[in-house]
Specification:
It is elongated and about 55 Å long. The chain is built from three helices and three strands. The protein folds into two domains: 62 residues, YefM-like domain (YefM-like fold, 3-Layer(aba) Sandwich), CATH 3.40.1620.10; 32 residues. The mean pLDDT is 78. It has a three-stranded mixed sheet with strand order 1-2-3, with helices on one face. A hairpin with a 2-residue loop joins strand 2 and strand 3. The longest helix is centred in the last third of the chain and has 25 residues. The protein is α+β, with helices and mostly antiparallel strands. It comes from Celeribacter persicus. This is Prevent-host-death family protein.
Length: 94
């Protein structure tokens, strides 16, 4: 993937020590692009959404945790159904 298509790193850094107060702000900012999370003043983590992570590192063999599996399978099913409906619509037009 071309780097120019990736969202830029977000400006504000969040601290692990104050995460209980800033969790919602961190989630909103991570939705816009990768965000740094500091621990004891040093950057320790980069937080990003699953969609951005899939753009950075697409891997169909990626393992999902048990908690994420149902949501991920539901998303795959919905995408497959939409693809099937769109291809059926194209076939009936011709």
């Amino acid at each position: 993937m071309d780097r120019s298509k990736l969202p830029p790193l977000q400006g504000r850094r969040f601290d692990v020590e104050t995460l209980q107060y800033d969790a919602l702000k961190l989630a909103r900012q991570a939705d816009k692009g990768p965000t740094f999370l500091r621990h004891h003043g040093r950057i320790a983590y980069v937080v990003m959404t699953e969609d951005i992570f899939d753009q950075l590192w697409p891997d169909p063999r990626r393992a999902w945790s048990v908690d994420e599996m149902p949501l991920h399978i539901l998303q795959l099913l919905e995408q497959g159904l939409q693809d099937a409906l769109s291809s059926t619509g194209e076939d009936s037009d011709t």
